Amino acid sequence: MKRKMGDRKKGGEIKKKRTEWPLIKPKAKLQITRLKDNDLFTVHNFFTSAESKAFVKAAESTGFVHQGSLGPTYGEAYRDNDRISVNDPVLADKIWKSGLDILLSDLKIRGKVAVGLNTNIRFYRYKVGQRFGRHIDESTDLGEGKHTHYTLLVYLSGGCKLKSKNDSDGTGDSSSEPLVGGETVFYGPRNSLVAEVPPTEGTALLHIHGDKCMLHEARNVTKGVKYVLRSDIAFA
C-alpha cells in the first residue's frame, strides 16, 4: 500500500533571524548517472565537501525540530527525523544555477520543461535509530503554472561509494565519523528492489514524484549522523 507523506507545515518551520547559507560554486562538468531511465538518477560532486560541511554547520546553528508521524495505522508512513524548513527564493536560485539549470535543460515531462527549484528548502537530520518508512512524494502546485515533478535530495554527509547489487559492501571516509545505514531505497512492482543509494557527501539524487513516484524509504541510521538537503524540481 502506498502511503503518501508530505511535510507537516507545523513542524520545523523557521521564523528566527535569517540564516547565512554558504556560497555555492557553479559546476561546469556535472554528469548524470542513471539508475532507472529518466525516473531516477544521481549527480556526483554536486556540492563540494566544503560546501556540504558548511551547510551542515549552518543548519545546526539554525536548529532542527523533530518530525514524526501518526504511523501506518493511521495511513501515514513511519517517520522519525529532525527537520528545518525555510522559504528562501535566493537559496533556491543559487542551488539551481550552480549547475542543475544546464544539466536538466533537456528534461521534460508532460510537455513542460524544468525551470527551477521549489523555494521551500528543507534540511533533514537522521541520528542513530532514526528512519523514514516507505512512502511516496507528492507533486506540488507552486502557482503561476508551475508544478513540481521531481524530488531533489543532496546528501550532506556520508562516504559510501554507489554500488550495484553485485558489489561488496563497504563504507568510505566521512567528514567526521563514519555514517552507516541511511540508504535511500526504491521499490518497484511487488516490492522488487529497484535501487539502493547509500548517502555520499555532495551527491545529488533526483527521482520522479507525484502519480509516478516509486515507493521508497530512508533506512535506519546505525552509526553517525545523516544530513540531507531537500527541494523539488519545478516545471512549467
TrEMBL record:
GO MF term list: iron ion binding; L-ascorbic acid binding; procollagen-proline 4-dioxygenase activity
Membrane topology listed for this record: Single-pass type II membrane protein
Keyword Disulfide bond set for record: no
Keywords assigned: Dioxygenase, Iron, Metal-binding, Oxidoreductase, Signal-anchor, Transmembrane
Catalytic activity: L-prolyl-[collagen] + 2-oxoglutarate + O2 = trans-4-hydroxy-L-prolyl-[collagen] + succinate + CO2
Domain Fe2OG dioxygenase: 116-236
Stretches that traverse the bilayer: none
Pfam families the UniProt entry points to: 2OG-FeII_Oxy_3
Cofactor(s) of this protein: L-ascorbate
Signal peptide per UniProt: none
InterPro entries linked to this entry: Oxoglu/Fe-dep_dioxygenase_dom, P4HA-like, Pro_4_hyd_alph, Pro_4_hyd_alph_FE2OG_OXY
GO cellular component: endoplasmic reticulum membrane
Compartment list: Endoplasmic reticulum membrane
Protein name: Fe2OG dioxygenase domain-containing protein
Taxonomic lineage: Eukaryota, Viridiplantae, Streptophyta, Embryophyta, Tracheophyta
